[in-house]
Design goal:
CATH topology: TIM Barrel
Largest sheet: 7 strands, parallel
Helix content: 40-55%
Shape: globular
CATH class: Alpha Beta
Radius of gyration: 19 Å
CATH superfamily: Metal-dependent hydrolases
Structural class: alpha/beta
Number of helices: 13
Strand content: 5-15%
Number of strands: 9
Strand order of the largest sheet: 1-2-3-6-7-8-9
Number of domains: 1
């Protein structure tokens, strides 16, 4: 935490009085049975824009945080799950941490940043990690960060706009195909790794505003029929998106893009976001009771069935 605070990269609220007991109290008030534990910006190793000096510390802290989270899962059975932290961009260390997290700690998935330095999680350098996650049929939850370019664009902190945009860039990195003619271009990461369940924060960030650029044509006709297999729209509709900091402007657009609410899961960015306000706010958006049951519980249980 001291390194994170010194970096100045911890967002609007760098310190929170988080305890397991306080988290469970707030969960109970909001009617939440289970919360997933994951690390947020800047994760480990990105206390500056140069990873190498912090490499050893990143590997150590990732293990410490995963062990700590696993103990909470064990001590408070049924109240917490674990999306394990990886010391990316160190590929070898991350593969070792995947093995430890899944085989020893029994993690529910991994929690990755949208980018590491100037590289996005769908890029070729991360293929070994994605291949292993694909082999394990893993859940990959992604939270945004800000790259070296964008710590204070326009004199604003990156949590204002940049984090949401970084999510859209990460989604594009997973959806984009290789260059060249369609018949010969390399498939996208989303196509190569169909067994990974991608979950994106904040309703996909700025995805809705740039949907035509990231996904391609999103005409009323395109959205009204099943998308072509392995098309960008096909994958966008198989991804999941959480509700953290969404609003009455974003949510109808996301629902229209996805063709319904089946891929939307409850998220609040707790303790930075207010979980009770998130739950209450969803009930003001015109969703049916069936939609709300899906968002609140059933959609998540499809990808985390052990919690049924």
């Amino acid at each position: 935490m001291q390194r994170t605070l010194a970096s100045g990269r911890a967002g609007f609220q760098p310190l929170q009085n988080w305890t397991p007991a306080k988290a469970i109290e707030d969960m109970d008030k909001a009617g939440i049975e289970l919360s997933m534990l994951s690390a947020t910006q800047p994760a480990v190793g990105w206390w500056s824009d140069d990873f190498q000096p912090d490499r050893d510390a990143a590997i150590r802290v990732a293990r410490e945080m995963n062990d700590f989270a696993a103990k909470l899962v064990s001590d408070y059975k049924g109240r917490f799950g674990l999306f394990a932290l990886l010391p990316l961009p160190d590929i070898d260390a991350s593969l070792k941490e995947i093995a430890y997290a899944f085989d020893t700690l029994k993690a529910d998935g991994v929690g990755l940043m949208t980018s590491y330095g100037n590289r996005y999680i769908g890029e070729a350098m991360f293929q070994p990690v994605l291949e292993e996650l694909n082999r394990r049929n893993a859940v990959l939850f992604s939270h945004p960060t800000d790259g070296p370019c964008c710590h204070s664009l326009g004199g604003q902190p990156p949590a204002t706009v940049e984090w949401f945009t970084d999510t859209a860039r990460a989604i594009l990195s997973v959806l984009v195909e290789g260059p060249g003619p369609a018949a010969t271009r390399a498939p996208s990461a989303a196509t190569r790794y169909p067994n990974i369940t991608f979950v994106w924060s904040h309703g996909g960030g700025t995805l809705i505003g740039v949907a035509q650029r990231v996904i391609g044509t999103v005409s009323a006709d395109d959205l009204s029929k099943p998308p072509a297999p392995n098309s960008r729209l096909y994958h966008a509709r198989r991804f999941y998106y959480d509700t953290a900091f969404t609003n009455p402007v974003v949510m109808p657009g996301l629902t229209r893009l996805l063709g319904g609410t089946s891929q939307i899961v409850l998220g609040s960015d707790y303790p930075f976001g207010n979980v009770a306000n998130t739950v209450d706010g969803l009930r003001t958006l015109g969703f049916s009771d069936q939609d709300l049951r899906g968002i609140d519980r059933e959609n998540a249980l499809r990808i985390l069935p052990k919690y049924r």
